[in-house]
Amino acid sequence: MNEEKRIIIAGGGLAGSEAAHAASKLGVKVKLYEMRPIKMSPAHDTGDLGELVCSNSLKSDSIENASGILKEEMRHLGSLVLEAAEATRVPAGKALAVDRGAFARYITSTLENNPLVEIAREEFREIPEKPGAPLIIATGPLTSESLAESIRVLTDTRHLYFYDAISPIIDGDSIDYSKVYRASRYENGEEGEGDYINCPINREEYYAFVEEILKAEKTETRDFEKGIYFESCLPVEEIVERGRDTLRFGPARPVGLRDPRTGNMPFAVLQLRSENMERTMYNMVGFQTKLKYPEQRRIFRMIPGLEGAEFMRYGSVHRNTYIDSPRLLRKTLQLKNHDLIFFAGQIVGVEGYIESAAMGIMAGINASRAAMGEAPLVPSPETAVGSLLGYISDGGIKSFQPMNINFGLFPPPGEKIPKSGKKSYIAERAFAAMSRFCPFRPSLAQTKTDPYGKGVTL
């Protein structure tokens, strides 16, 4: 192995892990920096690579959903995250959810046993002025203060962060099963029990619950930190402040969750999703919070079935970090003013586990190609991966906000397609385009020169 064929990765989350895995598949050596467990982040509990902190769900597997299309493309690219997810999957209806601990251990073991990957358990504190090898910054939403400052200086950026919140986890043995029922949304469980535990809440209980949230003590937030949460990960207290009925039209919506014991649809429902294969831990779906811990215990025990709930993890708020990618990055994930510095994962302004992991795969591919003196690659914009890369590098965006994969990011069909068939058409077109993108097999297209540094689109 030539010494030149090596890359450096800062961050052992989903994106960093995917980048290391992709690079090793191309025969490139990797030095992967992960500061945990030497230095812990505010939201992580272990030193495992790929630890999930917000939810254990990787969203829908259906290709009628944009996240399902993205996952199929990532399988084509040999995703380590999806390999780990399939090996540690837990029941969650049409969603892909995992045993959080087993998932991270799978990723950690895979990379620890990869002879091309060296894992350095230390903080990557500063971006060197002249990296000696291609460098991927994949430190994600919990980038350390010192590295965040280095990024801020390098990118001439005033602010790099917003704030995010995570949901509590309940001990399964502490749930009163006489007051809850199992069901997945719109599924009647004919094959057996549904994948979610549903806590039905009547009208009186719901409004009493909302009133207590509004009055509760919350973790203090400084003025300049307010109002900068991801919309899809809002704390419940932020949701109810927008209106007393907002919660029951959001995370507590009862639609499609008819109670089989009464035949009626409850006024509101809290869903609990299993965190592990043994079903001993349950995540309060969509109930991210920054309530103080005693308040979480008091208020969430008002929910029917959770009167005696024991909390294995309380919800919390933590800082997230992302850059102004349209101003700073090419579609190849390289800095516009530095060919050897790449960014990947949530720090580039994609929202969600799968989206972050997908960016890690692409950064791993392109940093490795840079190490080998080859042109970077960009999938067609007709693919989910390509559409995400297009969004985060779109210089026409004036006020950049993080984004999940969605059908609005794909190019519209170039022909008249019935509305009922539009999603299927986009999915089929994406898969056809991705089938032509084969970065792990030599091809004529991949050896083309790229004098403008824009990447070869396949």
Could you characterize what this model shows?
This protein has 458 residues and is of the alpha/beta class. The protein has two domains: 291 residues, FAD/NAD(P)-binding domain, CATH 3.50.50.60; 153 residues, Elongation Factor Tu (Ef-tu), domain 3 (Beta Barrel). It contains twelve helices and 19 strands. The strands form five sheets. Strands 6-2-1-7-17-16 form a six-stranded mixed beta sheet, covered by helices on one side. The protein has a six-stranded antiparallel beta sheet with strand order 10-11-12-13-9-14. A hairpin with a 4-residue loop joins β4 and β5. α1 runs parallel beside α10, α2 runs parallel beside α10 and α3 crosses α4.
Largest sheet: 6 strands, mixed
Helix content: 25-40%
Low-confidence stretches: 222-227, 442-453
N- to C-terminal distance: 28 Å
- The CATH class name of the largest domain reads Alpha Beta
The CATH superfamily title of the largest domain: FAD/NAD(P)-binding domain
Quick check: average pLDDT?
A: 89
Strand pairing plus helix content: what structural class?
alpha/beta
Whole-number count of domains? 2
> How many separate helices?
12
3D shape: globular
Q: What's the gyration radius in Å? A: 22 Å
CATH architecture classification of the largest domain:
3-Layer(bba) Sandwich
Strand runs, count: 19
Strand order of the largest sheet: 6-2-1-7-17-16
What is the subunit arrangement here? single chain
The proportion of strand residues reads: 15-25%
| CATH fold-level topology of the largest domain | FAD/NAD(P)-binding domain
